[in-house]
Specification:
four-stranded mixed sheet, about 150 residues, alpha+beta, about 15% strand, rod-shaped, two-stranded antiparallel ribbon
Length: about 150
């Protein structure tokens, strides 16, 4: 009677089909004591047995997927979604900009003592308003420049 396993030097030649033990997913043997062992995990879906090959790495069971499972993953990877981030960036800049700009401490202006200083004070307020409007325009330019440099990676 011929032997079932023959010594082929650095490999073993098996002359008959190899029967690998089958385990249920919740009843796997200890992977530490089964280091290097091969088992089948019987994952039943819709009442049909769906065996998956598993190899113990000494700490856990590495489960190998079937071709039909790999095709499902490939379909997910091949259809990426595009996300428009411009509104998110605009909202983030709008929310964070006041926190990033250092504000000078506000000093109370003394009340005018007479009506002669009212004209000079009004002129100073008009100049201040013009400068604030120019700064507001510059902030808008900076926001638009920052948005132009955002690149979306799929």
């Amino acid at each position: 009677m011929p032997r079932v396993i023959e010594d082929g030097g650095s490999v073993a030649t098996i002359l008959k089909p190899l029967k690998i033990p089958v385990y249920e997913p919740g009843r796997l043997p200890d992977p530490v004591t089964c280091t290097g062992s091969i088992i089948l995990i019987n994952d039943r879906r819709d009442g049909n047995p769906r065996p998956s090959l598993a190899v113990s790495n000494g700490a856990s069971w590495d489960i190998y997927s079937r071709v039909d499972q790999a095709q499902q993953v490939t379909q997910i990877v091949q259809s990426p979604t595009t996300v428009e981030v411009t509104p998110l960036v605009v909202a983030a800049v709008r929310d964070m900009l006041p926190a990033l700009v250092t504000r000078a401490t506000q000093q109370a202006l003394p009340a005018p003592m007479d009506n002669q200083n009212t004209g000079a004070l009004a002129q100073a307020l008009l100049e201040l308003a013009e400068q604030m409007q120019a700064m507001q325009g510059r902030i808008v330019e900076i926001e638009q420049t920052a948005l132009g440099r955002v690149e979306v990676q799929p």
